[in-house]
Amino acid sequence: xxxxxxxxxxxxxxxxxxxxxxxxxxxxxxxxxxxxxxxxxxxxxxxxxxxxxxxxxxxxxxxxxxxxxxxxxxxxxxxxxxxxxxxxxxxxxxxxxxxxxxxxxxxxxxxxxxxxxxxxxxxxxxxxxxxxxxxxxxxxxxx
Length: 143
Ligand code: CMP
Known about the structure:
The termini are far apart. The chain has five helices and eight strands; from the N terminus they run ααββββββαββαα. By secondary structure, it is α+β, with helices and mostly antiparallel strands. The protein is globular. α1 packs across α2 (24-31). Adenosine-3',5'-cyclic-monophosphate binds at residues 46, 52, 65, 72-73, 81-85, 92-94, 96, 133, 137. Adenosine-3',5'-cyclic-monophosphate (CMP) is lined by residues 46, 52, 65, 72-73, 81-85, 92-94, 96, 133, 137.
């Protein structure tokens, strides 16, 4: 596990669409609210049915979202997971497993909620992504 967010983390967040609209000072402040954590390939990061306190943004690597044996999504650099349990307090909806060496920026739930409250402009692109995932799940879009 690396230390708390640093200037490096802030520059990594600069490449992430959700944080693109923020100025550098804000991005740095937000970066410092999370921790950078590395996972070996094969590591289960989120357990289906477990309780959730973390929101994860993939800085590097690749994860699979799995329900039982079925892979329902692949997520890579710049994509997030773990938001569902933090939003509604329900158990984790799926396993999320690193399928390559993976580095995530991880926020605990209260920091996640705090950032959405203080920077609501971050929420809109996240909502767009959630709608995209819903459409994929419904089979109403190509990917
Ligand atoms: P959460 O339920 O907290 O933990 C498992 C995570 O997997 C979930 O949040 C989402 O981030 C992610 N996830 C669940 N279903 C999908 C899906 N259909 N497409 C992409 N990601 C998903």
